[in-house]
Amino acid sequence: MSDHEVVLTKQGFKELSEELDYLSSVKREEIAERIKDAREFGDISENSEYNEAKNEQAKLEMRIEKLERDLRNARVLQGSEIKTDAVGIGSTVTLKDVKKGKSFKYIVVGSAEADPANSRLSNESPVGKAIMGRKVNETVAVTTPRGNVKYKITSIKKG
Questions:
Q1: Residue 14 domain-assigned?
Q2: From CA 41, how far away is CA 103, in angstroms rounded?
Q3: How far apart are CA 142 and CA 153, in angstroms?
Q4: Which of 25, 55, 76 is the last residue of a domain?
Q5: 100 & 150 share domain
Q6: Position 94 in a domain
Q7: 53 and 115 share a domain?
Q8: CATH number of the domain residue 12 falls in
Q9: Contact 23/64 with Cβ under 8 angstroms?
């Protein structure tokens, strides 16, 4: 997989570093212990505990590798890079659903730290792409799984 620049906020870099630390130490040891215990049950060819632990280990190693790659290629945004005149990574944006009148507040982040459930919107998501570079009072149309939605940008602040 090719290495590409991963843009992160300071908070995102900290969170990914902490996750890598946890997975590399605590979680790795837990899974190694599960594998060791499962081996003691006898024949590993028919041992579901062993197979499950080995599968979890493979997933863990893939996640660790991805985190290491993302952090190695990270460019951490400095406060001075975050503008409030147009939407960019690091901006806190308030969007208003034009049809429903409901407002949403998001922090626009790079895809590596996106977490929509916690209002962290990827710049590569459909909504993120639509609002990047836009200004307050602009309206954008976005095609979402629930259809076309129009959002008005009501405020832009530093994240």
A1: yes
A2: 56
A3: 13
A4: 76
A5: yes
A6: yes
A7: no
A8: 1.10.287.180
A9: yes
Contacts of 103 (CB under 8 A, 6+ apart): 94, 95, 96, 97, 154
Asked whether residue 133 carries a pLDDT value surpassing 70, the answer given is: yes
Confidence of residue 38 (pLDDT cuts 50, 70, 90): confident
H or E element in which residue 10 lies:
helix 10-22
Q: In this structure, which amino acid lies at residue 102?
A: K
| Residues of the domain holding 51 | 6-76
Q: What is the arithmetic mean of pLDDT over 6-22?
A: 93
Dist. CA 31–CA 105, nearest whole Å: 38
DSSP per-residue codes, 68-106: HHHHHTEEEPPGGG--SSS--TTEEEEEEETTT--EEEE
Structure pTM?
0.76
Average pLDDT, the chain: 90
Identity at 34, one-letter amino acid code: R
Contacts of 99 (CB under 8 A, 6+ apart): 149, 150
Does any domain span residue 1? no
Verify that 49 and 93 share a domain, yes or no.
Answer: no
Asked if residue 66 and residue 110 are part of one domain, the reply reads no
Residue 154 structure tokens? 């009501």
